[in-house]
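Deviation from plan, reported transparently: 2-phosphoglycolic acid complex.
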Amino acid sequence: MNKDRKLIIAGNWKMNKTVAESLDLVKGLKRELSNIKEVDIVVCPPFTALCEVSKEIIETDIRLGAQNMSEKGVGAFTGEIAAEMLKEFLVRYVILGHSERRQYQAEPDELISRRAKAAHAASIKPIVCVGESLEQRESGVTEQIVGQQLRGSLAGLTADQVVETIVAYEPVWAIGTGKTATSGQAQDVHAFIRQTLGEMHDSGVAKRVRIQYGGSVKPGNARELMSQSDVDGALVGGASLEVRSFSEIIKNSI
Ligand code: PGA
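Because the crystal trials were delayed, the predicted structure below was used instead.
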């Protein structure tokens, strides 16, 4: 595939896997994916497994991501995790503003942008999620919603920080539903995201930002999705929980 941007495929394990199960999974991924250099591979285990998974992948090309982080530095914030604490486990990426957090924790764009800034300050690359609901798509406001989320969630980031940010387009109606956006639907929104990034900064910045698609990505649809000109990777939920399906997604994407 002839894109200047390196593909980045991340597994979002969500609230799944004990430490022992996490180690089994990551050991399997190490076996399957050790020769792959064409794709940036990221696993995002739950916080409780970061330490052990980190040790397991230390000498591999698999990188570690967290599923959320606080916008605050260390201190009296019960139940929160600071960037500095993630750094201890060599966490390189953090998913921010996932639709499940936007929905269940009512996270607004403004909070996500503060977290994105805190992540960059700690040299952790944020994976910032945006995406419309089914109702929004059906009423024709997809671009309005995605544009608003993008501008709000990346507000105040410098151009250099935006280049180091990964945007994940995840239509809410496609997450965990088995319903994938068609490659055409994905490409259209990805192109819109890149155009919006160009308006927020300039086209040089927009061209360098990697935009992942997420929502029922599977071995069978990965190649077609990744072949779209503005799709630069995937954020994978369900299919990242097994060695075979996650490895096949990566291999089929090259
Ligand atoms: P899914 O989840 O692959 O299970 O649809 C994607 C995500 O929520 O990141």
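The pocket of 2-phosphoglycolic acid is lined by residues 12, 170, 175-176, 214-217, 235-239 (CB under 6 Å). We consider this an acceptable substitute for the interim report.
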